[in-house]
Amino acid sequence: MGAYLLTGAGSGIGAALADLLHGRGEDLVLVARSAERADELAAAYPGAQVLTADLARPEEAEGLADRLPSRLDAVVHSAGIVALGDIADLDLAQWRSTLEVNLLAPVALTRAALPALRAARGRVVLVNSGQGLSAAGGWGSYAASKHGLKAFADSLRQEERPHGIQVISVYPGRTATPMQEAVHAHEGEPYDPTVWTRPESVAATILHALDGPRDAALTDITVRPGG
Ligand SMILES: NC(=O)c1ccc[n+]([C@@H]2O[C@H](COP(=O)([O-])OP(=O)(O)OC[C@H]3O[C@@H](n4cnc5c(N)ncnc54)[C@H](OP(=O)(O)O)[C@@H]3O)[C@@H](O)[C@H]2O)c1
User: Fold this and answer.
1) How many domains does the chain have?
2) 97: Cβ below 6 Å to ligand 1?
3) Tell me, what CATH number does 125's domain have?
4) What's the average model confidence in pLDDT over 50-55?
5) pLDDT value for 1
6) Segment 164-176, tens digit of pLDDT
7) Which residues are designated catalytic?
8) How close is the Cα of 125 to the center of ligand 1, in Å?
């Protein structure tokens, strides 16, 4: 059994991965944004250690360092937010919160977890996005945060390889989660979740990467809705 630290375990892809890991008896460390959310996660995942940090304040993630286990087999950053809008319309506060949650919080939490990851020769999974590879109009702040997340992953991979840490970026396409429902609402499109990848399927892909052989490190995994 291993120890896995997850953000975003309360919803969507992160919740689906927490279900899979909890179901096979792994030790979970879950980061919840509020005390109320922490209570919900503790009830949903008996035995899990639940920590509280609002990832819109990355220093709160950094402050978790003393409360982490001494060994972590993986840290999976799934928490994320999106604020759609043209650059002419999105204000700086929206840019800032997107960059805090999607980029700076993973940086801060990874730094806090590095000793435990090094001890276990663990893996870091960054849940990125197709927008982290190619930015579309109307997605500027989100795409910038995810491009930054890719850069962070690529640098971290090189730096931590001597310490045995593997770094995996996962780029889902549209996935049927509350985030995707909100995107459709913004786009003014009807939402049919059956058209998009299920969060359970993205989670299964992440689990495959987490379980993979050490001598064949996965680096970048793109997931698109299948037919
Ligand atoms: N859905 C898609 O189509 C899609 C496509 C590509 C990439 N992604 C990426 O996949 C990841 C997971 O997204 P999802 O679709 O599963 O979204 P989701 O269902 O909206 O879940 C997002 C999770 O992030 C957490 N979170 C957001 N802000 C937070 C904060 N300030 N502090 C702590 N936690 C916070 C949420 O916490 P609460 O539960 O407390 O709200 C929630 O658990 C994201 O990084 C997203 O960018 C999604």
Assistant:
1) 1
2) no
3) 3.40.50.720
4) 98
5) 87
6) 999 999 999 999 9
7) 142
8) 14
